[in-house]
Design goal:
Belongs to the AB hydrolase superfamily. MetX family. The protein is of the alpha/beta class and about 325 residues long. About 35% of the residues lie in helices and about 20% in strands. The chain has an 8-stranded mixed sheet with strand order 1-4-8-5-9-10-11-12, with helices on both faces. It has a two-stranded antiparallel sheet with strand order 2-3. Strands 6-7 form a two-stranded parallel ribbon.
């Protein structure tokens, strides 16, 4: 589905006009329009959060953690992305922030007649957006679920993103593949890479090895991921969205958020280490917020928020059991 509104004034003072959002819904919005959950996707995600091919299909659906028998789940393609919503390939696009990306989705809620959400939720960049929503629209969501995320991007996060952007600026297609390879390494863990590939050499590769060829299986895997990414993602969107992530810093504003909070960390996530999750928790607790914190054991790295759906589902379902449906 598509929704278009007149204009959006950005944090920078620039104006984007008009703004189009492509979104999907799962489950039925009730007559009172008080059973909606808004899910924010991560950097390379999209609105297809459930059903066949959905990136959280084991979490969103009938009887699942985000139970579509009870809730209407909404997910929109983010501003600045390349899956139908307004982005850098549509016009002379200005720099945007996480705050802007969240603000772009509020007119959609107004259009649907939703005054208050049961929850906002997201992992990675989506978790940043959930936290930003709680700060900018306090009380508009009863519950905030922030998974595998941080209250600000670290110097290390910014450094990885900048290397990827430099590669893209030098060569948009090849650079995007390299950026994805770099990013994908940060999404995994040393344990997961070792268990999956170790130092395995591709059969027959050693005899004909040239620089640029893939000798180790892990090299071939990263190349496959990089090339595949160029077929579904836009290089300019990668530039804009990673810059928005880099600019994100909500540490001094968390006290403005209202509602119940669930913060989830995965033990092998080194992109957003536990100290960053605890920073969110501590700041919320210091301002008197109702906060639940869950640590989930996993060797999957940052991507555990996509891969550990069963464990994550238990935490979310338990948390939402206290929500008004």
């Amino acid at each position: 589905m598509e929704f278009e509104f007149k204009e959006l004034k950005l944090e920078s003072g620039e104006v984007i006009a008009p703004v189009k959002l492509v979104y999907e819904t799962f489950g039925r919005l009730n007559e009172a329009k008080d059973n909606a959950i808004l899910i924010f996707h991560a950097l390379s995600g999209d609105s297809h959060v459930s059903d066949e091919g959905g990136w959280w299909s084991k979490l969103v659906g009938p009887g699942k953690a985000f139970d579509t028998d009870c809730f209407c789940v909404i997910c929109a393609n983010t501003l600045g992305g390349c899956s139908g919503s307004t982005g850098p390939k549509d016009l002379n696009f200005p720099i945007i922030t996480i705050k802007d990306m969240v603000a772009a989705q509020v007119p959609l809620l107004d259009h649907l007649g939703i005054k208050q959400l049961v929850a906002v939720a997201g992992g990675s960049m989506g978790g940043m957006m959930a936290l930003q929503f709680s700060v900018d629209y306090p009380g508009r969501s009863q519950n905030i679920i922030a998974i595998a995320t941080a209250a600000k991007s670290s110097a290390q996060n910014i450094a990885f993103n900048e290397v990827g952007r430099r590669a893209i600026i030098n060569d948009p297609e090849e650079g995007l593949a390299i950026a994805r390879m770099i990013g994908h390494i940060t999404y995994l863990s040393e344990v997961s890479l070792t268990n999956k590939f170790g130092r395995k050499i591709q059969e027959g590769a050693l005899a004909s090895q040239k620089f640029g060829d893939s000798l180790f299986e892990v090299e071939s895997y990263l190349k496959y991921k990089g090339v595949g990414f160029t077929k579904r993602f836009d290089a300019n969107s990668y530039l804009y969205i990673t810059k928005a992530i880099d600019l994100f810093d909500i540490t001094n504003d968390l006290s403005r958020g209202e509602g119940r909070f669930l913060v989830v960390h995965f033990t092998s996530d080194w992109l957003f280490p536990e100290y960053q999750a605890l920073d969110i928790v501590d700041r919320l607790k210091d301002s008197g917020k109702n906060v639940s914190y869950r640590v989930i054991e996993s060797t999957a790295g940052h991507d555990a928020f996509l891969l550990e759906e069963e464990k994550l589902g238990v935490a979310i379902k338990s948390f939402l059991a206290g929500a008004k449906s």
